[in-house]
Each structure stands twice: as C-alpha cells, then as structure tokens.
Amino acid sequence: MSHSRIISLIMSDIQKAMALLISTFDKYSGKEGDKNTLSKEELKDLLQNEFGEMLCKANDKAAIDRIFNDLDRDKSNSVDFGEFVRMVCCLTEMCHEYFVSRK
C-alpha cells in the first residue's frame, strides 16, 4: 500500500477535502508563471474541468472575465489560493442553501 494511500486512510473527511482543494489548485496553477497563483487562462481551465456548467460556460469570455475580476480582490491580475478558496466556500454555501430549501 502506498504512503499516500495510508495517509488518506487516516485522514478525516474534512482533512481529505482540504487536501483535495490544495491538490486541485496546484494542478492548475503555475502553468503560465507563478506556481502559487492562477492566471485567467489557468482559472478558465480549472472552472471548465472541475465545475463544468455549474458556474458558466467556460467558453463564455465575459463570464470568465467577471468571475476572474470578482475573485482577484487584490487586483494582482492573478488568483491566489485564498481567493480560490473563498470561491469554493461561496459555491459550497450556495449548494447547501439550495439543498436545504428543497427538503
């Protein structure tokens, strides 16, 4: 059994979710420069591959621009991990509210 498999067996569900957020961000960041941030193109790839149609059509340039500008709070022309996590938290909260209201 691999080391990562053993670690994943002893991690709680929340710890696994945190590790997944980190690894997903790392999978897309740094392809175009800084490995600690997402460029607009990297964010587009992440949104398209990880969220599908949940947020917007990934080929809708205006929607991608809006999401990128909303996330890039410090106007660094990139999205850092904290900005990415805020997006995931907001989406998670919206999904929770949707499913609670449907009960």
UniProtKB/TrEMBL annotation:
Residues 59-94 form the EF-hand domain. This is Ictacalcin. The keyword Transport does not apply. One of its GO terms (molecular function) is calcium-dependent protein binding. It comes from the Eukaryota. Keywords: Calcium, Metal-binding. One of its GO terms (cellular component) is cytoplasm.
